[in-house]
Design goal:
By secondary structure, the chain is of the alpha/beta class. The protein is built from 20 helices and 8 strands. A hairpin with a 4-residue loop joins strand 2 and strand 3. Helix 4 packs across helix 17 and helix 17 packs antiparallel against helix 18. The longest helix has 20 residues.
Length: about 550
Amino acid sequence: MVKERQLPVKRAAKLFNVPVQTLRDRVKGKVDHLSVHVGSESLFSHAEEEGIVDHLETLAQLGYGYTNVQVQHLAGDLALHLGKRTTGKPFSNNWLYGFLKRWSDRLASIKPRGLDSGRARNTTSAIVGSYFDTLGDVMSKYDFHNNPQRIYNVDETGIQPEHRPPNVIAAKGSKPPAITSPRSTTVTVMGCASASGHSIPPFFIFKGKRHNDDLMKGATPGARYTMSDSGWSNTAVFQEYIQKQFLPNVCGKPTSQQPVLLLLDGHSSHTSRSIIEWAKSHHIILQVLPAHTSHVLQPLDVSVFGPFKAYYYQECAYYMKRNMGQTIDRYSMGRIACKAYLKAMTPTNIISGFRKTGCYPLCPDVIARERLYPSEAFREAAPVHKVMAMKTGRGAVDDFLAEMAEKKTPPCKCNCSCNKPSVKSTNPKPKPSGRAITEDGYIEELTTYEQARQTTSASRPTTESQQPSTSGLNTSRNDVRDIVSSSEDDGEPDETDKCCVCNMTSPPDLHKLQYIKIVNWAECDACGHWTHLSFCTKVKAIRRNDSFLCPHCDS
């Protein structure tokens, strides 16, 4: 009324029962109607706080979210940068709680789920798109689009006697203990189900050599087991599984006119030539998932194994309560896991897993774009800007990519492989990731690779230099690099795994040593390449926070 009909402020305030000063401040623009609230004024404007919210959402989607304390430090630094404070002192808890309350429709304090860096790096839109293209071709070729009963997924997970205890009712203020079993061994459980909701009985892999039927006492009908030295799957174990457990329980015997599609990860135990040839002879098509993408594309991993672990912990707690004074051992794990398996392997969970991963019905668009954001942190120099552009729209993404293409990358100072055209092996080992390995194309590539290896092995001299002994060395440690050349050549290593001085993964003079020598590496602070210490540079050791330059950048 005041702005449009020029009604006096006092008359309008009396007419609408609004305080005069409040109406006057609003008319003069002294109050931002978007950020107005009861209490003291916020230091940041609505637009500035919205920028903080956008930044927090983007970093959380990338996998590097802020904690409460980090948000307080961020606000303090921003206030200093905007000149609203003279110091960068972190904001108080009162500001944080008020900020979260003002933006409660978009922000909340949430416990994140852990995501391995390998999975984050490899779950890209290009890899996922290529996989769905291959899967679509296979499904069209063998008419799987209308036959969910012929599409299966097999996966495995590990369980231990130690369980996660549930919440209990106890005296207020107390911290009662929960008796659990020691983590003495790991048992692998292999599960399999079809897109129609049909599940195959579980298959257990116990650690050991001799079979003992008491391990499966009380298990559900149809469950089987085997033994392995490590308790995990290997080629022989997986071959036994698909021959004695998978094939007999498939709905209908596979034929050339009605083959079975089996989705599985690319573990080496699943991709041996013997398994590929057996599967092809029995009309089973092995479709390998892209490496490190099972958390997005593996149906059982998405919707079954999570509930299975939860039910397993519940059953372990029930067992401990019913058998006070006893612990869970390998002889009781089978029947406990079978109960949890039956509860988790419901048709609803199974069908939901195939639908959420886009396997059946085939729908690549079902994979949420936000699940692919973490990979941008490993591919882009400015991943935050890239993700924010992707949220804005396709046009913004094109503008961002064009802007990044205009930026020239400074040339590397060293004379290493990054300044030379990459020379790949003339006969690299074919990678099964994301491919149907029972198709003729992959088998031909594998045959060519094996024939070339046999030719190379025949041309090598029969006498080789003596390798240093590895007696007493713990070669299973992850922080110790392989000091002896492996007899299994899996193809040309990646350029990033080579020294920028000798352009080799292993120092050229390592075989001349008559004693054990651990090869240490150091990253150059200037060019970012790695170099052998002691062999390719005069520096023998690098301490924490020390600077290091490779011989090329130090000259």
